[in-house]
Design brief:
With 507 residues, the protein is mostly helical. It is built from 20 helices and four strands.
């Protein structure tokens, strides 16, 4: 019995000694483990990483962005000249080929048809193969076919060549994505609305060309001269690099780093310490991203918003042109020129060319696209994108209906000035929101689909503004007001506010 108790006591002592020994070994090993952990941690600090978003925010705003703003903004000048050319040329081709109202409207529709067909395709190519290629190719394409338009021997050739111009302009519109992807988040609400300045310059240039060239040399020479800015801009495009965000999504990390380093040197700053690390995205350019659960509602509502933005904008442009050309205005102080309503020969409405005062009215209305930019910037920064869209669309609906009120010529000019301001601001905000809400892997495709839907609005607008307007001014203006109200209500359902949000690389 005593032997058993002694054996148990010896065993317990041996276990206690072993436990103490093991504890001492752990205490000796723990400092080494802590030291190794410290080394590993210091190794992480020695090799930090950053993303394109980090680099863009660190670089900030500088000389590169000024150059980007001027060159890419100039693309808006070309786009505006090609689109606004229709409003100036319409009375001239009506005269030359004795066109009916629907034939004049078909010219604008064919341009937007080309834009619609190539919009989504251009977005897909841009996401798959690069933004720069699409934008530069669009410039060359649109300039070439615009020049050919000036030699169109018949009406059929004219509308075919203008539809080809529309295809090129669809590629040019991808320049907005390229520009957006280089601008830091806090500057987007300031810089992107200023793009309206370039659109206004383009609109005014084509009106001034019409005023100076059409009465003396004809509309064909006006188109030839209008192509010159496109040719100049093509050579300036070599100073714009491919989007670093696109290069990263395509797996071209080295190219993205070179671009970011070049921009940082131009701005006289340094990139974040470490190396650029982001995963390539094989799914870029897939339409399924636009309709995944996180973006489905946004995409559907945006497609309608773009439809309304284009429908109302070109409706205001073409309506003003038609009201002035045919003297359909209800004005209390009309002069002798504006008392002539129509000239019919065998049932066809022949030309009433723009008078000098008509060109002046169009010029003043173009200034409206610039005048309210400070208000637009204020709304974007204070109210955000969604509320700004709602406010602008409701105000535009009111202005559309006010156009039909009898007033003086000065009163009509003021109403047209305000209407052009509102619809232009709305179009600009829709552009900004779309570029911010979609991820890099589908940003160009998302923009392409949206612009395609917008051109449906552009295709319908001429038949309302140029054909129905001859029957009833109120009936022609009502569809524009109603669609704006419906769109304003739909903006409450947009699930994402992009104010101050970083551009996403993937959904």
């Amino acid at each position: 019995m005593k032997r058993r108790e002694r054996a148990m006591s010896d065993s317990m002592k041996m276990q206690l000694v072993s436990a103490i020994h093991l504890h001492e070994v752990e205490l000796q090993q723990r400092p080494a483990d802590d030291k190794q952990h410290a080394v590993d941690h210091s190794g992480d600090d020695a090799d930090p990483t950053y993303t394109v978003e980090d680099a863009v925010e660190t670089i900030g705003f500088g000389r590169f962005h000024v150059m980007l703003f001027i060159i890419m903004g100039s693309s808006n000048i070309i786009e505006a000249m090609e689109i606004m050319l229709l409003a100036v040329v319409s009375p001239e081709i009506r005269c030359e080929w004795h066109l009916k109202d629907w034939q004049v409207a078909l010219v604008s529709t064919m341009v937007f048809l080309g834009f619609m067909l190539c919009g989504a395709l251009g977005g897909y190519i841009s996401d798959r193969y690069g933004r720069w290629k699409v934008v530069c190719g669009g410039f060359v394409w649109s300039a070439y076919f615009s020049f050919l338009t000036s030699f169109a021997p018949t009406y059929g050739w004219f509308i075919f060549l203008r539809s080809m111009v529309g295809c090129g302009v669809a590629g040019v519109s991808q320049g907005f994505v390229l520009k957006t992807e280089f601008i830091p988040a806090k500057y987007r609400a300031y810089l992107l609305p200023l793009a309206s300045i370039f659109w206004m310059i383009g609109s005014m240039l084509i009106i001034i060309l019409g005023m100076l060239v059409v009465p003396t040399m004809g509309w064909r020479w006006m188109i030839r001269i209008s192509v010159a800015p496109s040719i100049i801009l093509i050579f300036l495009f070599k100073f714009i690099p491919e989007s670093a965000r696109y290069n990263v999504s395509a797996g071209n990390i080295d190219e993205a780093v070179k671009t970011l380093e070049w921009i940082a040197n131009m701005n006289r700053v340094s990139l974040p310490a470490g190396r650029l690390v982001e995963k390539a995205e094989e799914s870029r350019g897939s339409w399924r991203i636009l309709l995944n659960p996180s973006l489905r509602r946004t995409s559907l509502l945006l497609w309608y918003s773009w439809f309304v933005a284009s429908f109302s904008y070109y409706g205001s442009v073409l309506s003003s042109s038609e009201l002035l050309e045919k003297n359909l205005l209800c004005v209390t102080d009309a002069d002798r020129e504006h008392q002539v309503k129509h000239q019919h020969v065998d049932g066809l409405c022949y030309c009433i060319p723009f008078a000098f005062a008509d060109y002046q009215t169009l010029l003043i209305s173009c200034l409206g696209e610039f005048a309210l930019i400070p208000l637009n910037i204020c709304l974007l920064n204070v109210c955000g994108r969604r509320k700004t869209l709602t406010v602008l669309q409701l105000l535009a609906a009111i202005l559309f209906m006010m156009i039909s009120i009898c007033t003086t010529m000065f009163g009509f000019t003021v109403l047209l000035f305000l209407l052009r301001s509102l619809v232009s601001m709305n179009f600009n905000v829709v552009y900004i929101y779309t570029a911010e809400v979609y991820p890099t892997v589908a940003r160009s495709l998302g923009m392409g689909f949206c612009t395609s839907f917008s051109r449906i609005g552009g295709m319908i607008a001429p038949f309302i503004a140029q054909v129905l307007m001859s029957q009833s001014v109120i009936l022609a203006l009502s569809p524009f007001a109603v669609t704006c109200v419906i769109c304003a209500l739909g903006n409450f359902l947009l699930p994402i506010e992009t104010k101050g949000r970083a551009l996403l690389q993937k959904s």
